[in-house]
Design goal:
The chain is α/β, with parallel strands linked by helices. The protein contains 11 helices and 10 strands. The protein folds into 2 domains: 196 residues, Rossmann fold; 106 residues, Rossmann fold (3-Layer(aba) Sandwich).
């Protein structure tokens, strides 16, 4: 396939079938790490740029966004391809690899916060607002931008192309809400009875409950932060919480039994999808979005020393689910 721009490679990602013992229930993972910047955020970042105000489409436009990494990386790639100036506002604990990637695309990174326990998401957003007002940059404001959810309409179309109207459950991580709510809204037009389940870390407040620190990156809403307007509770049937222990244990299971590296938020979503599969009716087809690649978390989720420092316990997921998962077969 010959393309005219790197942006033409966004989307049409593969769907991976995970065998469950007995074949009575099917689990499919939409592998969004095959997008050019390695995450599903490429889709929504392009949608936000494509929907910039008409008066702001000159080549000299400046944009700014507050991001923990994946959205900023995607925006930096698109900004380079579209000749747009972009500034990313990132946490003091953002990984060096993500910062260097954004700078490699020619974008600017401003690190905000000091890691002293102050809510850095709020600091990032306040700084983005200040830059938009005082410096005239356009704040894409992913948590409240309707283009966020609209950016996943094509993802839903791809799922329908691959599986038709046979999908029974959509179980996905929820952060800004764009991927889950945008995909669910489109799928429901063809599958009215679809069960939609949002998954957040224990400690996130999207579905209520007590807020506390969590280590799953790029998902949930921490205590003290506002839940974004992109989240549409009307399309979500249930909200579930998954601990860091179980999310990261699922990441280790997928890496060692399926050769698949995924990030912590995806681990949490897949853990919940497996929980749903335990009790789902025969013939159920469960889909979850594998948000990004675990290669971005080799120094955390897959680092035994880091896990030990943070008190994370890795458990045997196959044993935990009591025979649901088919034992790996040698070929």
């Amino acid at each position: 396939m010959i393309v005219n721009s790197i942006l033409d490679t966004i989307g049409r990602t593969p769907l991976l079938f995970i065998p469950l013992r007995g074949g009575e229930v099917s689990l499919y993972l939409k592998l969004e790490m095959f997008n050019p910047c390695g995450s599903m955020k490429d889709r929504m970042a392009l949608a936000m740029i494509n929907r910039l105000p008409t008066s702001s489409k000159e080549e000299t436009i400046d944009i700014v966004e507050s991001s923990s990494g994946n959205t900023a990386t995607a925006l930096a790639m698109i900004a380079a391809a579209r000749k747009i100036r972009f500034t990313a506002l990132m946490d003091s604990h953002a990984s060096l690899d993500k910062i260097l990637t954004i700078r490699a695309f020619g974008s600017n990174v401003r690190v905000v916060g000091s890691g002293d326990g102050v809510l850095e998401t709020d600091i990032r957003d306040r700084e983005a607002m200040r830059i938009s007002i005082e410096e005239g940059a356009y704040w894409t404001e992913q948590h409240n931008n309707p283009a966020n959810a609209a950016g996943y309409a094509e993802l839903a179309a791809e799922l329908l192309d691959d599986l038709g109207a046979t999908i029974t459950h959509l179980v996905c991580a929820i952060g800004t809400g764009g991927s889950l709510c945008g995909s669910a809204r489109q799928l429901r037009m063809h599958i009215p009875e679809l069960q939609v389940i949002g998954v957040e870390p224990v400690g996130s407040i999207i579905f209520g409950g007590e807020g506390r620190d969590y280590l799953q990156s790029g998902t949930g809403t921490p205590e003290g932060a506002d839940v974004g307007l992109v989240i549409d509770y009307d399309v979500i049937d249930a909200g579930r919480k998954v601990s860091d222990d179980m999310a990261f244990s699922t990441c280790h299971y997928l890496a060692q039994q399926h050769g698949l590296l995924v990030g912590g938020s995806t681990g949490g979503a897949i853990y919940e999808a497996l929980s749903v599969a335990q009790h789902a009716p025969i013939g159920s087809r469960i889909v979850t979005i594998a948000c990004d690649s675990g290669t971005k978390y080799l120094d955390s989720v897959f680092n035994r020393d880091w896990l030990s420092i943070h008190g994370i316990q890795i458990v045997d997921i196959e044993e935990h689910f009591g025979g649901l998962l088919r034992t790996r077969q040698l070929h």
